[in-house]
Amino acid sequence: MEPKKINVYLADDHNVVRKGMIRLLGTFARVGRVKEAANGKELLALMAYDQPDAVILDVEMPVMGGIETGKRIADSFPNVKMLILTMHTEEVFINKLVDIGIHGFLSKSAEPEEVERALYSVVDKDFYKNEIFDRAIAMAGHSNVEDKYSKLTTREIEILLLICQELTPGEISERLQISEKTFFNHRSHILTKTGVRNNVGLIRFALQRRLIAI
Amino acid sequence: MAELSESETIFIILTSSAGMLLLVGAIGIFILFYQKRMFKMRLKNIETEQEYEQNMIKAQLKSQEQERNRIGADLHDSLGSLLWAAKINSSFIQRTTDLQGEAKKSYDELIQILDQSIESVRRISWELTPEAFQHIGFSKSVEKLCQRFNQQHLTVSFTEMGTYNWNNDDAIHAYRIIQELVSNSIKHANATLLNVSIQWMENRLLIFVQDNGIGFTLDGNRTGVGWWNIQQRIKRLNAQISMGIPPTHQGSRISIIIPLEHGTEKNQRVLG
Question: Residue B177: helix, strand or coil by DSSP?
């Protein structure tokens, strides 16, 4: 079965970047409709009518930058996946973006193949893991707070570990012989118990509790 | 003229001598007071001058930091984005055109050039403004600086004794001094080993920057913007800097002592 086309909105204040990105996204097999905005405010205005599957955000934009835009999208449209495209890859900064609920991080020097991979990954798996993410997570350090972890049921821990193995919901449901709906139920319980917004936060949670290693 | 009697002569001599002595004494006391006042005034002048100099240095360094921040941000946001746009457009051409022979080679080189340019922008703007200094503080930033300068022919190591979370304006100056010394050493010393060591003491910070390069002449007449910058920051921090030769008799060793103010610091101090 042909996977559903991915609709993408992108926000960047540089016209040449937007035009270039639209051309590049047009060469990606799974990408469908692409719309552009010059800043976060314009993007949110576009999203008021209909929502894309994913957005690609620049960080530094006039009027409304990527961080504020990311926060608002996470609050209003939690199903929209967010990729950040940035020159800033400092660990502290990336961790802040993980808190907001950003799903993946790309450096403004990434190969086009990586952009394509990242886009598919955030849509299929709710996160994109690369070395920018790994470095940031390693810096976040380990946490001794075990209370949240101990509240998870065995089934939930099992699912958490499968998410960390970068399996898609379909693959996890198949492996556990449950429906995708049941999987998403479990996942939403895990998110509530751990207090994170998405799979990116879950991976950081698992790493901090030493459930997995990088 | 009537002859003066002996007693009268003695009286006149005595009184005039006493008068003279009194005068001399008065003049002496006046001079003493005057000098004391002059001395006080000079001291005050020196103090005002020093204060003025400190304020000048403060203003100069502040505007320098602001300028660096501005250029760094501009480089990132403007040039970085434009280079990225160039890269994705080149990628589009490659993905939609069947490039052969020289055209393919030219494309590969173009991508290499763009990657290197983006990397340079990143490096230069990082050197201009160490991102996240406020968050990660002095020690971690110095450690990162050392990691960044680590290269094939030069090992840059970092050691720290004790810990202290230091991230105020003074910390930036101390960081800049180390940055200047390390890049100086890399540019001129022809060293293969470089060590930055910091030690947190009760009320001061010791910094040692040591390399095994060609060393330098201790003529005390060092010039250049880099050195001037170091001197200004040393003054600003009320610090002391001295240059010497490491125990290995090769290269150079620069020691800096920076007094740390306590009580006024909001940072928590933890001695390790």
Answer: helix
Which amino acid, one-letter code, is at A214? I
Residue A23 to residues A19, A186, B123: CA-CA distances in angstroms? 6, 39, 29
Domain ranges (residues) in chain B: 133-267
Nearest Cα residue to A4 out of A50, A53, A57, A47: A53
Residue contact A87–B135, C-beta within 8 A: no
Any B CB within 8 A of A62 CB = no
ipTM above 0.90, yes or no: no
Chain B touched by A38 (CB under 8 Å): no
- Which residues from chain B sit within 8 angstroms of residue A20, using beta carbons? 84-85, 88-89, 92
Q: How many CB atoms neighbour CB A132 within 10 A?
A: 20
Angstrom distance (rounded) from CA B166 to CA A67: 27
Assigned CATH for B133-267: 3.30.565.10
Closest CA to A101 of A88, A119, A114, A84: A84
d(CA B271, CA B200): 8
Token couple for A10: 């992108």
* C-alpha span between B264 and A41 (Å, rounded): 43
Domains of chain A (ranges plus CATH)? 6-138 (3.40.50.2300), 149-208 (1.10.10.10)
What's chain A's Rg over C-alpha atoms? Answer: 17
Q: Tens digit of pLDDT for each residue in A28-81?
A: 999 999 999 999 999 999 999 899 999 999 988 889 999 999 999 999 999 999
Tokens of B145: 């600086």
Contacts of B87 (CB under 8 A, 6+ apart): A109, B111, B114, B115, B118
Dihedral Cα B81, B84, B90, B94, nearest 10 deg: -140
What is the model's pTM?
Answer: 0.75
Query: Is B87 in Cβ contact with A109 (below 8 Å)?
Result: yes
Nearest C-alpha in B relative to A115: B88
**Residue pLDDT, tens place only, B118-167:** 989 988 888 888 777 878 889 988 998 998 888 878 899 999 998 888 88
CA torsion through residues B161, B163, B165, B170, sign: negative
